[in-house]
Write a structure and sequence with these properties.
By secondary structure, the protein is of the alpha/beta class. It has 3 domains: 183 residues, FAD/NAD(P)-binding domain; 161 residues, Polyamine Oxidase, Chain A, domain 2; 82 residues, no CATH class. The chain is built from 18 helices and 19 strands. Strands 1, 2, 10, 11, 12, 13 and 19 form a 7-stranded mixed beta sheet that branches. A 7-stranded mixed beta sheet has the order 8-7-15-16-17-14-18, sandwiched between helices. Strand 1, helix 1 and strand 2 form a beta-alpha-beta unit. Helix 1 runs parallel beside helix 9. It binds flavin-adenine dinucleotide. Flavin-adenine dinucleotide binds next to helix 1, strand 14, helix 16 and helix 18.
C-alpha cells in the first residue's frame, strides 16, 4: 500500500491525527466519513500501533492478536465494514494449566458458570449472583471497592477461583487485584459474553483493509512521520510540527500515549496547575515481553488449544507475572487456519513485564536476559508440544524496550494507563481548545475493542468541536 510522503501533504487540514493505533485509525476514519479533511501521521513505517505484525524467516508473526471479546463483531460492522466483521472467528479452545487447576473452556459465561459450579464446587446462586453483579457495574458506580474485595465478597479464601477469574484479565490489560472493581467488571463482562474471538487472515490483513477504507474515505495517510510538537497558542491548538514542516489544523487528536501527549508533545506549559496536579497522579501500566516461534515448513503438531494460560507459580500474583523470570505466560498458537491464504504454524509466548527491569541493562546483559527468556519459553512450550525445539526454524523476541522503540509509549506501556488516565484523556480539550486524546487509558479504553470504541467516542467530540 502506498502512503503519502510527508513533503506531499497539504499545509492545512481540518484535523490532524497523531498515531495509527486502532483508536487513531478509527477516529480518523469516522471524521473523514463525516466530511472532514483528515491527515494521519504515524512515526513507524507501518500502520496499526500495537495492533501489529512482522515477518521473519518466511513466517508472519502477530504481536497483539491473541483474542478479543464478541463485542468486536458489532463494533467492526457498525464503525468499519461488513467485510471486516465477516472475518472475525471464534477461538474455541482456551486452556488454563497451573498447579491449582487444569481445564479447557470456550471462555463463555455459560461454560464458566458450569466450570465454577462443577469443577470448583461453588453453588449456582453465588456464581449467578457474581455474574449479575459484575455485569451491572457501570462507569458511574462507586469506585471504592477493589477487585480483591469483590472476589473476597463472593468467593472468600478461594485463591483458585480468584486465579481463574483474574489471570486472563491481568494479561489483557495489566490490572491487579488492587484496582477499582469497576474496571474489572467492565472488561470481564465484555469477554464473558460469547467467548474469545480472533481475526482470520491476521493483523496484516485487518490493518490493510482498514487502510484501504481510510484512503477510500479521503484520509491522507503518512507513515515515517514523527510529530515533534503540538502547536498551542492562546489556549488553543493550531496544528503540529512534523519533520521540518508545520501543518495547520483546527483540531489535533493525539493517539500518542497520554503522558507523551502532555509532557512532550503539547508541553506542560499548555496546562493549568490544577490539571497537571491531577495528571501527575496518572500511573502507566506495565509493558510486555514476547517470544515468537516459527515452525519449519512441512512440520506440524496436534491441536493443543488456541490460547494457553500457563503457570507453574503456586498462586496468582500480578507481581510474579511481571518478573523477568516469571513462571507465568500465555501461548497463542496459530494454526494454518489463521491465514488460510498462507498456511503456517507459529507460536507466540507473551509475558507481562516491568520496563525498569529491562531498561538499564548493558548490551551484553540485555542479550543474555533475552536468551534466558527464550529458553524458559521453550522449556514451558515443550510441555504442550513435545519436540518443539526440533520443529522451530525461526525465533525472535521482544522486550519492553522493543515496545517503547516502536510506539514511543512511556515505559513501553502495553495497556496505556491505570484508571486515573481516563479523566485526563476525556478532559484535555477543556484545557487546550481543539486538542483531543484517543488511545489506551483507564484500563476500560484499552484492548482492540476498547481502542476502537474510544476512537468513535472521540471522533464525535472532535466533529462537534470542528463544526462549532
Ligand atoms: C503484547 C501485547 C499483546 C496484546 N494482546 C491483545 C489482545 O490479545 N487483545 C486485545 O484486545 N488487545 C491486546 N493488546 C492491547 C491492544 O493491542 C492495544 O490496547 C491497542 O492496540 C492500542 O491501541 P491504541 O489506539 O491505544 O494505540 P497504540 O496501538 O498504542 O498506537 C499508538 C500509535 O501512535 C504512534 N505515535 C506515538 N507517538 C507518535 C508521534 N509523536 N508521532 C507519530 N506517531 C506517534 C505510535 O507509533 C503508535 O503507532 C495487546 C498489547 C500488547 C502490547
Amino acid at each position: 500500500m502506498v502512503f503519502t510522503p510527508l513533503d506531499k501533504v497539504r499545509q492545512k487540514y481540518d484535523v490532524v491525527v497523531i498515531g495509527s493505533g486502532l483508536g487513531g485509525l478509527t477516529c480518523a476514519n469516522r471524521l473523514a466519513r463525516a466530511g472532514h479533511a483528515v491527515l494521519l501521521l504515524e512515526h513507524h513505517t507501518q500502520l496499526g500501533g500495537l495492533a501489529t505484525w512482522f515477518k521473519r524467516g518466511g513466517h508472519t508473526f502477530d504481536v497483539s492478536l491473541h483474542g478479543f471479546p464478541y463485542g468486536m463483531v458489532k463494533t467492526c460492522k457498525k464503525y468499519w465494514s461488513k467485510e471486516i466483521r465477516d472475518s472475525i472467528v471464534q477461538l474455541n479452545n482456551i486452556v488454563f494449566d497451573n498447579p491449582q487447576f487444569s481445564l479447557t473452556t470456550t471462555f463463555s459465561k455459560d461454560d464458566f458458570t458450569r466450570i465454577l459450579h462443577e469443577q470448583f464446587t461453588l453453588d449456582r446462586v453465588t456464581v449467578d449472583d457474581f455474574f449479575n453483579t459484575v455485569r451491572a457495574m457501570n462507569f458511574y458506580d462507586d469506585l471504592g471497592m477493589t477487585t480483591r474485595e469483590l472476589f473476597e465478597k463472593f468467593f472468600p479464601g478461594r485463591s483458585d477461583v480468584h486465579r481463574l477469574l483474574m489471570e486472563p484479565i491481568t494479561y489483557a490489560n495489566g490490572s491487579t487485584l488492587d484496582e477499582p472493581a469497576i474496571t474489572y467488571g467492565i472488561v470481564f463482562s465484555n469477554f464473558m459474553n460469547r467467548g474469545v474471538f480472533t481475526f482470520e487472515g491476521g493483523t496484516d490483513r485487518l490493518i490493510g483493509m482498514m487502510a484501504t477504507d481510510l484512503q477510500h474515505n479521503g484520509v491522507t495517510l503518512c507513515t515515517g512521520a514523527k510529530v515533534e510538537r503540538i502547536i498551542v497558542e492562546n489556549g488553543k491548538t493550531k496544528g503540529v510540527v512534523v519533520g521540518d514542516r508545520e501543518i495547520s489544523a483546527s483540531a489535533v487528536v493525539s493517539n500518542s500515549g497520554i503522558t507523551n501527549t502532555i509532557d512532550n508533545l503539547a508541553g506542560r506549559d499548555a496546562f493549568s496547575d490544577d490539571f497537571l496536579s491531577r495528571f501527575d497522579k496518572v500511573v502507566v501500566n506495565n509493558s510486555s515481553s514476547q517470544v515468537y516461534f516459527g515452525i519449519r515448513k512441512g512440520e506440524a503438531f496436534d491441536d493443543v488449544g488456541d490460547l494457553l494460560f500457563t503457570s507453574t507459580a503456586k498462586e496468582f500474583s500480578s507481581e510474579e507475572m511481571r518478573r523477568m523470570d516469571t513462571k507465568s505466560r500465555t501461548f497463542s498458537v496459530y494454526y494454518p487456519k489463521t491465514r488460510p491464504d498462507a498456511p503456517d504454524y507459529t507460536v507466540v509466548a507473551s509475558m507481562n513485564a516491568n520496563y525498569a527491569d529491562w531498561a538499564d541493562l548493558d548490551e551484553q546483559a540485555y542479550g543474555r536476559a533475552k536468551e534466558e527468556m527464550v529458553e524458559r519459553c521453550f522449556d514451558d512450550l515443550e510441555r504442550y508440544i513435545p519436540g518443539i525445539r526440533d520443529k522451530v526454524d525461526t525465533i525472535e523476541s521482544a522486550t519492553p524496550q522493543t515496545f517503547n522503540r516502536y510506539t514511543l509509549h512511556t515505559e513501553g506501556t502495553s495497556f496505556g494507563t491505570k484508571f486515573e488516565g481516563l479523566d485526563i484523556s476525556r478532559t484535555i480539550f477543556k484545557e487546550v481548545g481543539g486538542l483531543f486524546h484517543v488511545g489506551s487509558v483507564g484500563i476500560i479504553m484499552s484492548g482492540w475493542l476498547g481502542a476502537i470504541n474510544y476512537g468513535v467516542i472521540v471522533a464525535n467530540d472532535v466533529d462537534a468541536y470542528v463544526r462549532s
